[in-house]
Amino acid sequence: MAAEEDTPRAAFGLVSWRVSLTIVIALVTLSALAWLGTIEQSHAMGAMVMGLGQIGRLNQGNMGAGLFLAMWLSMMAAMMLPTIAPMVVAHAAIVRRRGEGVLPTLVFIAGYLLVWATIGVVPLLASWGIAQLGDAAAQSHWLPALAGMMLIVAGAYQFTGWKRVCLDHCQSPFAFVVSHDFGGGARSAVRAGVVHGAYCLGCCWAMMAVLLVVGLMNLVWMAGLFVLFFTEKHWKRGLVLAKIAGIALVILGAAVIAWPALLALISQ
Asked: Which of 68, 154, 160, 171 has the smallest number of CB atoms closer than 10 Å to its CB?
């Protein structure tokens, strides 16, 4: 397959429509179940501070590591599984042709989720740090400045070479699959899933960090990020969209620094 033909849409032509539909339905179903769990968790924790913009308005509280990481994995499954459908289809197409069955593709997905589960330690530590901030921090000058700078950095990352390279890999499912060792069965597939997860993390981590500002369980922002990630990966102009989102975040960050009251408004 030529490079210009290697697109997320083209991946669905590598297998029959029945196989493609089965994979998409499975991923969307898992995502929907994860969304339901995330929504329940959001309601249960709706009165707890989960982001810088919620300090002074909601209750402080420390969440145990196990509960937090389970919540985080549910969030990532909800937001990210539909975005990797073309990659999963491309992987399934190649391993099916090699007669390796469905198991390698399942562990490929598991390896992908493992990356997002592991990186959950970072927001866990950040949430513990946020929990140590008292109501006095909400009246400080440095809190909105910190939140604004985080938004600006997240927006600026959208223009970096790392973002472009990682998004290119996410948008080229066939090239990714054939350029990695899938000949070793499940072990090789899980390793490839981890590599793809790392590229996906490199593509999306900055935007995910915005949740530490507006609230990790902020459903409106989560839904917006899901739409952004999905469109970035599936649209040939995805990098343009990423840069538009980056400009919007830089402007929003500067506005938060200039008008601190805006921080609470965007974190509702």
From this structure: 160
